[in-house]
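Allow me, if you will, to draw on your knowledge of protein folds for a short while. A protein sequence and the structure tokens that stand for its backbone fold form the material at issue. I would ask you to consider whether the tokens describe a fold that such a sequence might reasonably adopt. Thank you for your consideration; the sequence and its tokens are set out here:
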Amino acid sequence: MEGMSDAHTLPDMTDTPPMPDWEKRFRAPRVSLPDWAEDAPDRSLFVSNATGTYELYAWDRSTGEQRQVTDRPNGTTDGIVTPDGQAIWWFSDTDGDEFGIWMRQPFGGGEDVPAAPGLEPSYPAGVALGRDGSTAVIGRSTDEDGTTIHVVRAGEAPVEIYRHRESAGVGGLSHDGSLLAIEHTEHGDAMHSALRVTRLDGSPVAALDDTEGGTVELGLEALGFAPVDGDTRLLVRHQRRGRWEPMIWDVASGEQTDPGIELPGDVNAEWYPDGSALLIAHSFEARGELWRYDLASHALVRIETPVGSVSGATARPDGAVEYLWSSAARPPQVRSTAGGVVLDPPGMKAPASVPVDDVWVESPGGRVHALVQKPAGATGPLPTVFEIHGGPTWHDSDTFMAGPAAWVDHGYAVVRVNYRGSTGYGREWTDALKHRVGLIELEDIAAVREWAVASGLADPARLVLAGGSWGGYLTLLGLGTQPEAWALGLAAVPVADYVTAYHDEMEALKAMDRTLLGGTPEEVPERFEASSPLTYVDAVRAPVYISAGVNDPRCPIRQIDNYVDRLVARGAVHEVYRYDAGHGSLVVEERIKQVRLEIDFADRHLGAAMQQS
């Protein structure tokens, strides 16, 4: 084959250095939790980086056959297998810009064709596929139209049944395909959705809105209709008791049933395939676990899983539960309660890393939870990277991450902070950052930083502020508002100029920014100014490294260039790396390159401080 060495003249590997563990963690093949066809459960779809790029794979469990479905330079991760198991739908964008169309391919392989001819490219806003194989509901979002939802039937033109300027999305079809759940933010609060149920002609059936009156900001999420024909029960997540938890809403009768699951932290759920029980996913203090809730007996029974994080779980028709598990120290595995590993990719295995320690620190907003990793046997003070998560509605957990592990391998301690705005600690904690966006999160990060120095963990002369997306935004904002605190900044795909970012970003994120800041840049200019890294760029003292995708619709490149131009104008020490993708890369070698560049930048600029310590 072209590009391979002759079988009799193998290359001399004696001078090739061994691959370091941190690179192995990125290159080792990984798989996602397999999705499966509702009426053909042996047919599954999963994501893997086996080729060096994250792509979709079909898996026929009855034969064991696996095949690669997609093969694109920038990778593919958004896909779904049709309920009858006959086809795979996957979302095709351009260069990682998240703007594209749904494609369809036979499960056994074949030609890719547009799944919904007649619909123009858009940002995806959810999709639901009917069990008959001929009906689909597609949510779309564009800057011009806001959100639209179309019903697509084989051989017919798409029919629009919903349109609104605010963000919305497809929440799921009933088992018989007669009812559609829609999540929407028509009330203008992009962080708290309401629900509407319609027939497929768009006529209304029922509505549920916990934001009515404008005084209580609560969210609702559709988790799926009961998997039984004629069953009008919709599984819903709500925030009525200050956290996410499930309830069952009968959209025909209006009855709402609260399972009363008294577990601390956030609770998610999905149906067992026969509709008799709920699979409960419980997240609390950066760990995850699973439970089974029987709807008839109301019994809540724990499903045994190792200590760590459960990143996804599904109940199979035979009653077994499959789940994706990992911890900070142990690489991810798809396991089953029936025993063993369900899907184990061949090839190199990711080396283990070190476990995390939990730290709780008092901040102006309350107790902040942080996760700390450091090289085995190391004593402080150490060069320390504060790796700040994105979102902001997300949280760091005891899960395997190749990035933090790479820093630990290079002698750094890593601190991850679940600042106000993070999920998993109650609704008030998540909602606390409104109006003083960015500044609130940095108060919590500062409190943990002070603990890290006072405890002897972190060297105050070698503190690195780093993060991607919202974490990159907080990095640039922190370098400007706390210039004396940080020796270095590493910002990946950041918000850098909040006003320009607002005008250039995708519509759904504009809606979120209006919610967070209380209006548009024209309506509340003082809030955008106070929360924009560009406002404080002239105060930045630390060397800054910025990486950005040139096709990013979430943190667009123009606003990053505006920030960089200001650094250039004052001769500030900085480096910028631009790459041909969107909001991050799905190519393993590109991700390794980015981490290598970040570590090299840190080592070079912290070198003097390291020698003095």
Residues 1-14, 608-613 have pLDDT under 50 and may be disordered. Residues 127 and 136 are 7 Å apart (CA to CA). Residues 588-612 form the longest helix (25 residues).
